[in-house]
Amino acid sequence: MTMEAWTAVAVTVGVFVLLAATRVAPYLILMGGVAVLLVLGVLSPEQALSGFANPGMITVATLFVVVAGLRQTGVLSRLGQSLLGRPAGLTGAMARLSLPVLGASAFLNNTPVVAMLMPVVVEWARAIRISQTKLLIPLSYAAILGGLCSLLGTSTNLVVNGLLIQTGRPGLNLFDITWVGLPAAVAGLAFLLGVGRYLLPSREGPDMAHVDPREYTVEMVVTGRGALVGKTIQEAGMRRLMGVFLAEIDRQGHVIPAVRPDQVLQAGDQLIFVGRVDAIADLQKIAGLAPATRQVFKLDSPRAERVFAEAVVSGTSPLLGTTIRDGRFRTRYNAVVLAVSRNGERIQARIGDIVLQPGDGLLLETTPSFVEQQRYASDFYLVSVLEGDGPPTGERTWVALAILVGMVALAASGLSSVLVAALLAAGLMLLTRCCSEEAARRSLDLPLLITIAAALGLGQALLHTGAAVALAQGLLQFAGDHPWLALAIVYGMTTILSEFVTNNAAAVIVFPIAISVAEQLQVNIMPFVIVTMIAASASFATPLGYQTNLMVYGAGGYRFHDFLRIGLPMSALIWTVSVLITPLMWPF
After folding, report:
1. Mean per-residue pLDDT for 119-148?
2. Per-domain residue ranges of the chain
3. I need a surface site. Which of 136, 279, 537, 540 has the fewest CB within 10 A?
4. How many CA atoms lie within 13 Å of 465's alpha carbon, on the beta-carbon side?
5. Total-model pTM
């Protein structure tokens, strides 16, 4: 190898070591590695920044906007309630999540599947009181396993099939890979649900690291013909809410203070919740619940353009000594009080009847302009926008769902790329006001996008310096004249490369080498084509190995060794199953 190739290998290994040994943000380490290679002249500026123009990275960024629209219109909360439900334990939760994801990823590109489900899984984990670190890696792994089951599962499968056709041989049919991919996926899923559950870490994600101890009181109403009418408290999932509890029910003036799990909800029930401010805001997203105050529908701006904000009443506020209703809060500030906090105490009064005191915390539904106008005003000590999405716009649920279905159909039909379909969907989400511009901007996870782009930059260094090809050829020297051993080495070489470069790049590098090995051994090339296809996608051992791993890496607050602990045995299992089964389906 050339000096540039050795430099690229050394920097890449250094990046892996830093990721494994430190808690520095992954995007900083990866960008640091790319910067070193750029300064040393190993990468040109175009190569170093090529990851930021990569269609995969742009697709993920665009899908954040699509997901923001789905979340703001309540589609994702409905999906979580209907599809994921309320499992009894961790194994049930992993099964409910993994099976549909695996099935969907067999026919849809697995990257958008994970991008759309990540926020659903995070909220679901909080609701069922299971650490999200127990569920986000299974989300990624199930999507990867599903991608092995058909030719449409991943772009890598299509790339390898295209390379096969270029050799003058007939291409694969849609389900040819299924003969190997499905047994591998079943074995991987069994490992994940059996042994894997004990290898997954259990810790709070970055969004739950700092919990606000203050408690707010809020009133919600069960909407007529809503999803909750006729359900018991247990069936509605209100016994396992994270960070909030149902204190009482007001039913036509009759108060039910000690709510039993078998209490059946009726239309018009006023539910009094007490809990953390972030959990109170999340109640707005539950299908079938609405704010008890009708004032939210009288604000000037559409709900898609509003935000949740927190304000603390000052000692000089003109509202002191008056109730929220008498103070004409909405008229005065173009904001509606949803919940009130007072020294961590439960306030025994309806929201409109609460007499405001200095230091009272208010959860508001308002516009961004309120925050700018009142941030330094004397009426409030503190005004801040809550992180996350604003109020849900339930009246556009079906519009957002239609946009989602159209995006999936357009991409799956082959009429457009996933990127074009995602761009169209994101544009429609904004044009139809399913997603506000503010929510779209907040939805972009810049550290994650930088991580993906920088990882692609490192892959470019290994690819263009020849280090990746040299590594592949060196490993094949151990094959000898044994086709089965050669097949195992081709698989291992491909999966190792895919941990360092992109999956498609690993497949492109190994494919001609694998064909050459088969021809030298005078055996059928098809076993080598199939294992190259599977190994390029079956990357579990590091967060850099596959795009979906990178996506859950930051979102779940994982550490590098978390993937090694569960990913190495998973990779070894899929390796073994694939190498054993492939020659039985396509004999040498």
Report:
1. 85
2. 3-204+447-583, 307-339+350-389
3. 279
4. 31
5. 0.65
